[in-house]
């Protein structure tokens, strides 16, 4: 007896307006006034262009230009607010640094999983770029400093001449807040050339994570916040 099978549904193709809708939803969760700000842009810019077009006799060209300018200003506003909204929503959650690192793909090699995860849910991420190796921690300063120092020693044994920079993410004194993590990475002076960066990555790929029990409630393979949740789809 043959069984009828139904073909699996193909995932719907995402259009640019789907991404705009997701970005708007995410930004509005943090900045509730976003809709009113966009409405004000429409009223002032587009409405003004219509009035100007009527009074000047250019009742087609001026409103068209006003529509284009209105769209551009709304997109600029959404783009400017996107990163601050993202940082505010993931700040303090496990994997927040991983989400920031995933947006620094150009010139950086970043693993999908942390280099170190402890029982207390302290985390150390490793990024490799032209400034060398950057280790970024998540957790209280009194605990993560030892983790950073230990990881630096492990890397030095394999790559003794490569610069290693330590960054603590957090809100304690001496730590770097989430919105400034990427800026801190860019502030380091370039030392390696583009060919040396993947060579260092291959060398450090032989490093095994420190033997430690993975804490309950944290999956090192899923430690980054879901992109669906970031953009209002989760």
Question: Would you give an account of this structure?
Answer:
With about 230 residues, the chain is α+β, with helices and mostly antiparallel strands. The protein folds into two domains: about 15-90, no CATH class; about 95-210 and about 220-230, no CATH class. About 45% of the residues lie in helices and about 10% in strands. Strands 1, 2, 3, 4 and 5 form a five-stranded mixed beta sheet that branches. It starts with 15 loop residues before the first helix and ends with a helix.
Provide key terms for this protein.
8 helices, elongated, transmembrane, 47% helix, transmembrane helix, disordered C terminus, 2 domains, single chain, 5-stranded mixed sheet, 234 residues, alpha+beta
